Amino acid sequence: KMAAGEAVGRYRSTMSRSKDPSGLLISVIRTLSTSDDVEDRETEKGRLEEAYEKCDRDLDELIVQHYTELTTAIRTYQSITERITNSRNKIKQVKENLLSCKMLLHCKRDELRKLWIEGIEHKHVLNLLDEIENIKQVPQKLEQCMASKHYLNATDMLVSAVDSLEGPLLQVEGLSDLRLELHSKKMNMHLVLIDELHRHLYIKSTNRVGQRNKEKGRMSSLVKDGSSVPLMDVTNLSTPRKFLETSQFSTPGSSSLRETSLLEIKEDTELDPEENSAVFMGILIKGLAKLKKIPETVKAIQDRLEQELKQIVKRSTTQVADNGYQRGENLSQENQPR
Predict the structure, then answer these.
(1) What are phi and psi of 29, to 5 degrees?
(2) 222 or 84: which leads in pLDDT
(3) Which residue, 267, 248, 273, 266, is CA-closest to 258?
(4) Pfam families, per this entry (predicted)?
């Protein structure tokens, strides 16, 4: 009995120390094997059965008390397990789809590159077609600009068109006639600009002086004392020389007013281009510079200088003679009796 009591004590101490079921089972087996008395074994067996029954009753009571929570927990666990399983399946499917897409893109890479290059080529062809369409309209627009004397716009348009025809569009055979026509116009364009420049340098400026003189003469004819002829005042007249005088005293290395004025001159298509002679001549010079004909312009001005100055003297002499004759006629008419 003492041995059985010690075995039960060891069993209980083992239960209290360890909650491992396997350890508990080994302890019970050891206790039963060390006991020689059948009664002690039966007692131990009864105690074990009673303990198991008590555990079952306690478990049943706990299940009854917490049935709702237990059911919810089981369902929640089942739902979580299903979601995890579905997620794993979906991830596996996504990985397979990504691998499939990677293979397809790898196979289509060359085709996509070819289509991309074709798209760039088509875009370039469309740009060339637009440029060709615009160039075809250049002769008509050029004629309109020349008729309205907007020479800077005409020069820009002509130079740009010729550069395109002799550059990117050089291989277009259908534009050969247009290329020859515009090239010929570009070669002769500077002659028109030089003639306009001479007209404003020598003719238009002196016509303004003559017009002012006629106005003075008409004013003097209204005065009773016809012998007093007013002198012609040319100090306030806007002449080409006065347009350039401001740059005569500029120091070397400094930007002169003449250069600044020529750079800032712009052509207004809404206004009369010849309204301001100085601006108009600046436009002509810019056009000649774009045509790269400045040396030819300087040579033409030098060659025609003596002839133009002689024409100025001739015209001035004729105007002075005509004004004097007209004044004499007016005086003779005033002195005649009624």
Answers:
(1) -60, -40
(2) 84
(3) 248
(4) Sec8_C, Sec8_N
